[in-house]
Structure to design on (162 residues):
């Protein structure tokens, strides 16, 4: 009986995962996604010509070098941030609240651009991150604060990690 119950549970979970994968029609793929990413990268490079970039399309400017080691995937980082849209309008800021944010890095708890950026930073480092929508909230956005396909700009500081 236990074996039958386990089998039924495994099959049910597999069906749920397949349905979730098949019903995600909001995510662009193929040529549309690549065209949007390339367009956003052109826009970013026009506005931030001194920025460095990664193969994924993340752009950044190191404002102040950090020291020591890099955090490892799964470690909890503590960071301050000030988030704006590409036009400069603010949507969120831990600095304004006076409290940094903590999260496990590299495990998908934050947007892809943050995971990638913070894994490449050292303690005390400050960067400007310019994140194309594919590495942020994509075509869904994060209503009501962040519209679909928004390029996000963050001033970040890696305060600590454990």
């Amino acid at each position: 009986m236990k074996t039958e119950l386990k089998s039924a549970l495994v099959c049910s979970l597999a069906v749920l995962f397949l349905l979730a994968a098949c019903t995600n029609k909001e995510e662009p793929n193929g040529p549309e996604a690549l065209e949007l990413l390339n367009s956003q990268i052109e826009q970013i490079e026009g506005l931030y010509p001194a920025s460095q970039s990664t193969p994924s399309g993340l752009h950044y400017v190191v404002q102040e070098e950090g020291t020591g080691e890099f955090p490892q995937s799964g470690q909890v980082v503590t960071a301050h941030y000030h988030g704006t849209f590409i036009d400069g309008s603010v949507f969120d800021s831990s600095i304004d609240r006076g409290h940094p944010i903590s999260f496990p890095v590299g495990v998908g708890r934050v947007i892809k651009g943050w995971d990638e950026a913070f894994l490449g930073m050292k303690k005390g480092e400050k960067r400007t991150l310019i994140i194309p929508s594919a590495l942020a909230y994509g075509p869904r956005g994060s209503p009501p604060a962040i519209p679909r396909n928004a390029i996000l700009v963050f001033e970040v500081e890696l305060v600590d990690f454990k």
About this structure: Confidence is low (pLDDT under 50) at residues 1-26.
